[in-house]
Design goal:
- Helix content is about 30%, strand content about 25%.
- By secondary structure, it is an alpha/beta fold.
- The chain has a single domain, classed as 3-Layer(aba) Sandwich (Restriction Endonuclease), CATH 3.40.91.
- A hairpin with a 2-residue loop joins strand 9 and strand 10.
- Helix 1 packs across helix 2.
- The chain starts with a strand and ends with a strand.
Length: about 200
């Protein structure tokens, strides 16, 4: 899997925390590059059929990489009273106690907004030092589950997040894309989540 773009929503990280930020970003980038299809190959090749591929299996190798490198998977955080957001895909805790989050989009565009809202609120409340949302590119999007969250639909809202009065924190979106296309590879399986096939 390759990274084609990183959109920084805001970067207000102090010098003393810059090393932790760099380590978190390096881990995330390495975890994305570890994602291959078919499993066991050296690159990510997708079957080029409209909405033909699932999305949840794509992030599995990324999560495995982060798990092996000290990240905690499916971490729940209490953000505000009465709010019970879903767990964050992966969280890294540094020696100074600060936390960094990564969300890999496997839901629809509403899920993308929730992921950004969740991380932005946690940064605002100083519960996270930063976070990254991973989204498919416009080239990858048509081959995945219909209505999967994607960069084209979330990008217009970036200026809204940039108005937040953040004292210190980092938020970005990493845009991912397949390395190749071939109708000779198997389709990525779709799981079930309610009625939706993912």
């Amino acid at each position: 899997m390759k990274i084609i773009e990183t959109k920084v929503v805001f970067d207000k990280i102090s010098k003393k925390s810059r090393g932790n930020l760099d380590r978190a970003i390096n881990d995330i980038q390495s975890s994305i590059k570890a994602v291959v299809w078919p499993i066991g190959s050296r690159k990510f090749t997708i079957f080029p059929g409209k909405h033909a591929n699932g999305v949840k299996p794509i992030k599995k190798e990324s999560m495995n990489y982060l798990d092996k490198n000290g990240w905690v998977l499916e971490k729940r955080m209490s953000l505000v009273d009465g709010m019970r957001p879903g767990p964050i895909d992966a969280v890294k805790e540094f020696s100074d106690g600060k936390l960094f989050a990564m969300e890999w989009e496997t839901g629809n565009i509403s899920s993308s907004h929730r992921a950004l809202n969740k991380m932005a609120l946690a940064i605002f409340r100083k519960q996270l030092m930063g976070g990254v949302l991973v989204l498919p590119s416009q080239a990858l999007y048509p081959y995945l589950t219909d209505r999967i969250g994607n960069i084209k639909e979330i990008e217009p809202y970036i200026p809204l997040f940039q108005t937040l009065p953040i004292e210190e924190g980092f938020l970005s979106i990493i845009v991912i894309e397949h390395d190749d296309e071939s109708d000779q590879v198997s389709k990525i399986p779709k799981g079930t989540d309610g009625r939706a096939l993912k």
